[in-house]
Prior knowledge:
Radius of gyration: 21 Å
Strand content: 5-15%
CATH class of the largest domain: Alpha Beta
Structural class: alpha/beta
Number of helices: 14
Strand order of the largest sheet: 5-6-7-8-9-10
Number of strands: 15
CATH architecture of the largest domain: Alpha-Beta Barrel
Helix content: 25-40%
Distance between the termini: 47 Å
Mean pLDDT: 91
Low-confidence stretches: 1-10, 13-18
Amino acid sequence: MVAALPQSTGRLEAAAGSSGDVASRYALLDAALKAPVLRRELFPTPVILESVELLRHRNAFLCRVRSPEGAEGMSAGHGSQNSRNWPVFRGLIERFRGKDARDLDALIPDTEGKGGGVPFNVQLATLEAAILDLLGNIAGQPIGLLLGEKIHHPRIGVYQGSRVGELRRLPPEEALVLVKQDLLESKARAVKMRAGGGGKLDGDTMPGRTEKLIRMAREMFGDKMTLMCDGNGNYSRDGAIRIGRLLEEYNYYWWEEMVPFGWYDELKQVNAALKINIASGESESHLSTFRWLLANDACDIVQPDQLYFGGMIRSMKVARMAAAVGKTISPHITQYGLGYLYMLHFVSAVPNACPWQEFDLFSTRDANGNSIPIESKTSPITSDDGIIPVPTGAGLGIRIDPGYVKTFKVVTEW
């Protein structure tokens, strides 16, 4: 079931065990990290990754994995898999090929130290999604049931996050008309605004734009619409607190990524000063950072991106840590490839998911700007008043058009 519409900006109610000093919170977080994620018991015999292939068509990529028995899994890559960083996939092929896919938890590289980072994580997540699709096809189960004991959210409430450029550049009167047009397609019952800009902290693209946008959005969409706001790192601590209080006045649900990336102490101070839920984490690439954010109560909602952060196994570990200290999760999704599809499967298995998840229309663009033609294995994937059903077919629950796949060639030169 989808959670009830939030009616205030009051902090999400903390779960049992969320209180205590930092040391106690670290103990809870570390305990949550120890449990395996993939349900290995679903696979009584080895699932050998006989082939691991990266397929390329100009700037777009697919990943295909196969078992000796002929089972197959496939995923779509991300736009950042370009000529500068996609060759690192060769190392992943060497790491995974010939291995038992049931050992996926252990095969996912550690995120400690200097390893990882978004360029590497995107490659890893693409491969992981293909492996999960393979395993789901073998087990006859959707990916959510490979990651959790049950499907907690068969239908996902989404928030609309489109019109980023327009919300930053145009006068609020013009930008909000475009947002309202997109709502005809998404039918979302929650919408995210954008704050700040202009090339400097606490600046704006035009005087008073953000303040006016915050007020006008509430007036246009009414009290029943859940509104969020993303600061995209445009504010100092004091500026973030000032805008946050305005958001509280107009009953916004969360205030997201308002201070520059890496300003963790300032983020913690903003959270301490405000009542509105603070959301953060879309650019993080290490488990250790989320561990610090949660132990130090720097945010209320964590937002790992399934691609930037390296896949669903890592993201599930973040969700479990968040649950251990009474926090929730609303993953960031990237606009290329099948990001919204990965989000649906992941969130379906997470008990402590937020009521609303990011959705930028049914976009399946590859890095060449072409739509990725997909077909659901079961019922169509549509939005019914802002609620999207999670695909119930095996694996990712979709088929990528074979004609589209044929335009790609296996990468053999690195």
